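Researcher: I need the complex structure. Ligand is alpha-L-arabinofuranose. Inputs:
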Amino acid sequence: MSTATAVINLDIEGPTISRHLYGHFAEHLGRCIYDGFWVGEDSPIPNEGGIRLDIVEALRALNIPNLRWPGGCFADEYHWRDGIGPRDQRPRMVNTHWGNVEENNHFGTHEFMALCELLGAEPYISGNVGSGTVQEMSEWVEYLTRDGDSPMVRLRKENGREEPWKVKFWGIGNETWGCGGNMRAEYSADLARQYATYCRDHGDNKLYRIASGASDADYKWTETLMQQISCFGCESTPKNFFQGLSFHYYTMAGTWEAKGSATDFDTDDYYRTMLSARKADHILTGHSTVMDIYDRGRTVGLVLDEWGTWWDVEPGTNPGFLFQQNSLRDALVASTHFDIFHKHAARLYMANIAQTVNVLQAMVLTDGDALVLTPTYHVFEMNKGHQDATSLAVHLRTADARRTVGDAELETVSASASVKDGNLLISLSNLDAEEPAEMTLDLRGALVGEPTARLLTADKLQDHNTPEAPTAVAPRPFDGVTVTERGWNLTLPPHSFLTVQAPVTLAG
Ligand code: AHR
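Model: Output:
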């Protein structure tokens, strides 16, 4: 048994946790769009206009705030005009990044916007810099968001949409250091300025332009991009070319060459995974520190628009489709990330899990007409009350809640807290594979009402959900919270995630 104490000052408010930290990502990759979100109007699977309804229903329960599309690497070979107009007349192409399969373009701009409307999520469109043109991107913005009369507006209306859509989030390229063009940071920065210039605000549609940013801990890339924001060192009215700067960070147990199985792993692999997940904290600190130098006023948001676990594909599946199972280990990677995201809420504006359906660390997996909610899904659901809440600093003392992993030390308890509309939400993870964690929650500065708690755990870290056993890993009520004079005591089982909520009234 390890012990840990968390001191939470309920009357000291931190920054707001942007709802967009709970964002999603859906790429034309494997079975995310086709045979995932999109089944087509003629499918026997219940759908609305071709969009699979059980997925929509599952995701609506998460209050997903935004959906990034169409890539990823795919975005930089996607030409949006191929995805509008009558479906049977749309040109086809080869998806060279993902499996070399033919893309029929049946899921295009109108289908994506319909999906966002069904989900109640804001669209985040990732534009093509790698193989597109400034004009192409500029016209896509016009097609989507301009009102009145113009060439692109007329084209949109011919395709059945009178009113412009609202689109705020606009990605200027993806991984321009890699699949998006193998550029140098300096060149990418110039292109970000150029493309951003022609991505216009039409009417009252104000774009939040997100420049393609770093991989992992490449702080030099972030610095090169941040040097481009026009307010740095200039005396004229500040005007940022881009409002957000992205970076990507994936969690692994091994290497890119040997990532390991999603479900067949040992305890050492597990702890290495958790170290890798915890590293997100250091990397966020690094990027934020660089951004603070150039942007003290935090006018540019940090956008982690790809994160999550990356394992070997499931045996027998297309290696280019990135289909992986999702175990309790993945859930703990997610819960740890959210604690880190909440801690960095002042600079981190958006984060998008890769990817929502059937690819990498998915929320839902489908098999024919069966749909399975993954353990990761349940973390998103249990944590959704943090969206737009006020973060609270958690002072964690974890004297013996630690494990030595190789030459590093892993803190095995992770926590975060927020308050919204008079409701306190605390998230707690015990990352230890074997030992329970006895926790003292010292709650100061407010009167706290009756707690209710939910627990996500399973017998084994490798446990996961399948169509045959869809609730092998699912949350259940937890009645082990003891109310004390100072707060709450509870014992977290090994490898578990717990949320506790209670009404709060500020003291005095
Ligand atoms: O999410 C899968 C891929 O990972 C994305 O297409 C790319 O941006 C990243 O390398």
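Model: Summary of the prediction. The pocket of alpha-L-arabinofuranose is lined by residues 27, 71-73, 174-175, 306, 354-355, 360 (CB under 6 Å).
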